[in-house]
Specification:
Elements: H1 19-37, H2 45-52, H3 56-67, E1 75-80, E2 88-93
């Protein structure tokens, strides 16, 4: 992986975020989601939950984090599955610094 690719480690924001309690846990969570997504394969929140062991709501939050400038401005595509059940597919497009 290129040295210019920012990994998803760092402080999170929010009114309830406590760095002493949350930084390491959320960093591990972000790294697990990153590792599952970085291949560029399509995933659902359910498949990511199975791959990482983390809850779907937390995975969704980490995917949103990946889009933020402090985590590299990566693209996380959210695609409707077409099955008519409100199921979405997610694909990570890593920003390798070309922006």
């Amino acid at each position: 992986m290129s040295a210019s690719v920012k990994l998803p480690i760092g402080d999170r924001g929010g009114a309830t975020y406590d760095p002493a309690s949350d930084r390491a846990r959320l960093g591990r969570q972000a790294q697990a989601v990153w590792d599952a997504m970085v291949s560029g394969k399509v995933h659902t929140l359910q498949t990511l939950e199975a791959a990482t062991g983390h809850p779907q709501a937390s995975i969704s939050a980490r995917l949103r984090d990946f889009r933020k400038p402090e985590y590299g401005c990566h693209t996380v595509e959210r695609l409707r599955s077409g099955e008519g059940r409100g199921l979405y597919l997610y694909v990570l497009r890593v920003n390798r610094g070309e922006r």
